[in-house]
């Protein structure tokens, strides 16, 4: 068996810093989102995905795939969102077993109200702290890692 390739001090600093930053940044932005709008991260992800579609509809399985959730987990979350009037669920016209999630007027209002303070939180806690060069580097790093992860899935 090959000897593990342990991280050196520089690599360890980058890795551990990234992990701590991600945890704290996600937690802070989630707290701000909930405080400002009453929405959870998952609520916001569903609503923003629906607004990205011209017809404001998404098949449940496709939305679950996008969110990297199981279909059953997303279905339970959608049920809670339905109770709050944010979305509705319809049968799929082409597949009787499938469901289509539809953005409701209440969901449209919720995402319109939530987006401005959410973007301000993202700016305050990340974007505005970085130089243009750092933003470019972060974008490049993200592209490289995501491309590698996508090729690992293939």
Automatic annotation (TrEMBL):
GO-annotated molecular function:
DNA binding; DNA-binding transcription factor activity
The HTH marR-type domain sits at 11-147
Q: Which domain of life is it from?
A: Bacteria
Q: Which one GO biological process term can you cite for this protein?
A: response to stress
Per its UniProt record, what InterPro entries does this chain match? HTH_MarR-typ, MarR/SlyA-like, WH-like_DNA-bd_sf, WH_DNA-bd_sf
Could you tell me which Gene3D superfamilies the record lists for this protein?
Winged helix-like DNA-binding domain superfamily/Winged helix DNA-binding domain
List the keywords (alphabetical): DNA-binding
Looking at the Swiss-Prot or TrEMBL record, what is one Pfam family this protein matches? Answer: MarR_2
User: PANTHER family this protein is in?
Assistant: MARR FAMILY REGULATORY PROTEIN (PTHR33164:SF99), TRANSCRIPTIONAL REGULATOR, MARR FAMILY (PTHR33164)
The protein's name in its UniProt record: DNA-binding MarR family transcriptional regulator
Source organism = Nonomuraea dietziae
């Amino acid at each position: 068996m090959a000897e593990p390739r342990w991280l050196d001090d520089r690599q360890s600093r980058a890795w551990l810093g990234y992990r701590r930053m991600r945890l704290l940044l996600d937690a802070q932005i989630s707290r701000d989102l909930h405080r400002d709008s009453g929405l959870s991260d998952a609520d916001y992800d569903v609503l923003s995905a629906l607004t990205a579609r011209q017809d404001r509809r998404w098949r449940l399985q496709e939305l679950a795939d996008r969110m990297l959730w199981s279909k059953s987990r997303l279905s339970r979350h959608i049920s809670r969102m339905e109770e709050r009037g944010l979305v509705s669920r319809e049968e799929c016209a082409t597949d009787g077993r499938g469901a289509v999630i539809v953005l409701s007027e209440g969901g449209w209002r919720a995402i319109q109200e939530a987006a401005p303070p959410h973007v301000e939180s993202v700016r305050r806690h990340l974007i505005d702290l970085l130089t243009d060069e750092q933003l470019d580097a972060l974008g490049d790093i993200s592209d490289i890692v995501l491309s590698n992860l996508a090729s690992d899935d293939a």
